[in-house]
């Protein structure tokens, strides 16, 4: 089942995210989350091993949930201290909604990880998106881990020269973080320049026509899925 | 103050394979040790473990008998200086002078002392004319020398250099080697990674070869 066309997957992600953004009701969102998990499990056998990435942002999600709960005043109070409504039913619903929405969007994006990036490049090109732009998007994604690596190295270097990051004030910390941007950005620009030269040297855009080794072909299954998904989303939205 | 590894093993979180297995090495002050081995055999990984940037999966690293797992990077940095394989990733100040001064200020040194050390190290690594230059616009070899100056100025106990000779010309290589000999006499422990047989022969007291993630002679305690 993993050889589903990348375009079907892209469409699936777009439909799911749209629904996630439009829906307000936590019950509907929960149902959508279940569907997303099912889809993910169906398309990507290694999905469970990626869940630890999601676990890392749980504290952030919890914070968002709390903030939403606390700062929503409308609705029937569920909990009040000294006459001040701390928690209302609407607040709870909004909090849950925000949390579910983010989880759904992240998990639906994980569906994309089940195809190779090369496939998406082809998919974008066959959707008539100029190759240059499609290529740029892919290169950008490719650079992220490298940027992360470099950022980490700077982060270690700063500490190794005697800065106790745990002990300094927030103001100093921010100053330090902006300082760390210097080598990271300079490294990125350097890399981009090198890459541009390397690409030119290999005749990137030198000729108007570019050939592709493979063409993606939609199978019956893809047509079926795509039509169903779009129809379903439209029906659900109205 | 000994720097030693005990049954050290390491696997990258993202990687499947164990990169280093059962590494037992003892580094001493007043000694220059060279680490060598094929590309990708784990030299950089080992040096990063030694300075606490990577934390070992099993085994431990002790500095003067204390496990470094309990120390912060800043505490380790005071004792062990580290120059990355790519020194550009270690530069974050806006002038050469500030780059060297950064660590010294963190040590809480006085103004005069800082001035003195900056001048001395700029002079020694022949960077004086670049004092106010933006460090990232220096050449590769100059960046290398700047980072050497910046970490050595902090007067650590050990100095770990990941491929310090790449990018240095013959004259600068000799300058670096002579400096290593000098700080060795002062009781520093020096550990460097290199592929250059000549440089290793000329300056190292002992050679540690890594093969397939193990010490090739099986013990890191010779010499
Ligand atoms: N962040 C990482 N995640 C996963 N694997 C890694 C990571 N960094 C390095 N490796 C792998 O670990 C192995 C050892 O890498 P290391 O950088 O220590 O080699 P090295 O001996 O320094 O090589 P070189 O001589 O090229 O500098 C390599 O096979 C490399 O692919
Ligand atoms: Mg290396």
Characterize the structure shown.
The complex is a heterodimer of chains A (238) and B (223). Chain A is mainly alpha-helical. Chain A folds into two domains: 1-115 and 214-238, no CATH class; 116-206, no CATH class. Chain A is 71% helix and 4% strand. Chain A has a two-stranded antiparallel sheet with strand order 1-2. In chain A, a hairpin with a 2-residue loop joins strand 1 and strand 2. In chain A, helix 7 crosses helix 8 (170-201). Chain A is flat, with a radius of gyration of 23 Å. Chain A starts with 5 loop residues before the first helix and ends with a helix. The model of chain A has no long low-confidence stretch (mean pLDDT 86). With 223 residues, chain B is of the alpha/beta class. Chain B has a domain at 3-90 and 156-215: P-loop containing nucleotide triphosphate hydrolases (Rossmann fold, 3-Layer(aba) Sandwich). Chain B has seven helices and ten strands. Chain B has a six-stranded mixed beta sheet with strand order 6-7-8-3-9-10, with helices on both faces. Chain B has a four-stranded antiparallel beta sheet with strand order 2-1-4-5, with helices on one face. In chain B, a hairpin with a 2-residue loop joins strand 9 (206-211) and strand 10. In chain B, helix 3 (96-106) runs parallel beside helix 5 (140-152) and helix 4 packs antiparallel against helix 5 (140-152). Chain B is globular and about 45 Å long. Classes of the chains: A mainly alpha (238), B alpha/beta (223). The interface between A and B is medium-sized, with 20 and 27 residues. Bound molecules: adenosine-5'-triphosphate and magnesium ion (MG). The site of adenosine-5'-triphosphate has 13 residues of chain B, from helix 1.
């Amino acid at each position: 089942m993993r050889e589903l066309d990348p375009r079907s997957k892209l469409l699936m992600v777009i439909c799911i995210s749209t629904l996630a953004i439009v829906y307000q009701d936590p019950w509907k969102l929960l149902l959508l989350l279940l569907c997303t998990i099912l889809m993910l499990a169906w398309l990507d056998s290694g999905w469970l091993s990626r869940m630890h990435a999601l676990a890392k942002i749980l504290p952030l999600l919890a914070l968002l949930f709390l903030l939403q709960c606390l700062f929503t005043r409308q609705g029937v109070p569920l909990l009040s201290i000294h006459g001040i409504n701390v928690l209302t039913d609407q607040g709870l619903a909004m909090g849950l909604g925000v949390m579910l929405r983010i989880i759904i969007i992240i998990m639906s994006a994980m569906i994309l990880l089940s195809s190779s990036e090369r496939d998406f490049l082809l998919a974008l090109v066959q959707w008539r998106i100029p190759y240059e732009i499609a290529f740029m998007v892919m290169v950008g994604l490719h650079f992220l881990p490298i940027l992360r690596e470099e950022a980490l190295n700077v982060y270690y270097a700063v500490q190794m020269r005697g800065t106790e990051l745990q002990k300094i004030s927030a103001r100093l910390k921010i100053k330090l973080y902006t300082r760390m941007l210097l080598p990271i950005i300079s490294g990125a620009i350097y890399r981009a320049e090198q890459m541009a030269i390397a690409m030119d040297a290999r005749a990137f855009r030198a000729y108007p026509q570019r050939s592709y080794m493979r063409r993606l072909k939609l199978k019956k299954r893809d047509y079926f899925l795509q039509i169903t998904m779009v129809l379903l989303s439209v029906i659900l939205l109205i | 103050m000994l720097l030693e590894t005990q049954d050290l093993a390491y696997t990258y979180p993202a990687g499947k394979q164990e990169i280093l297995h059962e590494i037992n090495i003892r580094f001493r002050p007043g000694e220059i040790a060279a680490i060598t081995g094929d590309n990708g055999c784990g030299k950089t990984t080992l040096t990063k473990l030694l300075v606490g940037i990577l934390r070992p999966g099993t085994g431990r690293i002790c500095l003067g008998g204390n496990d470094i797992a309990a120390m912060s990077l800043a505490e380790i940095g005071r004792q062990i200086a580290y120059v990355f394989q790519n020194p550009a990733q270690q530069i974050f100040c806006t002038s050469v002078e500030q780059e060297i001064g950064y660590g010294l200020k963190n040590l809480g040194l006085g103004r005069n002392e800082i001035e003195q050390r900056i001048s001395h190290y700029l002079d020694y690594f022949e960077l004086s004319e670049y004092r106010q230059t933006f460090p990232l616009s220096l050449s590769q070899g100059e960046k290398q020398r700047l980072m050497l100056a910046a970490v050595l100025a902090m007067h650590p106990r050990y100095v770990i250099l990941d491929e310090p000779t790449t990018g240095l010309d013959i004259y600068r290589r000799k300058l670096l080697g002579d400096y290593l000999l000098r700080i060795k006499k002062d009781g520093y422990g020096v550990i460097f990674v290199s592929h250059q047989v000549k440089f290793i022969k000329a300056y190292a007291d002992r050679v540690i070869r890594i093969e397939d993630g193990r010490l090739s002679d099986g013990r890191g305690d010779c010499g």
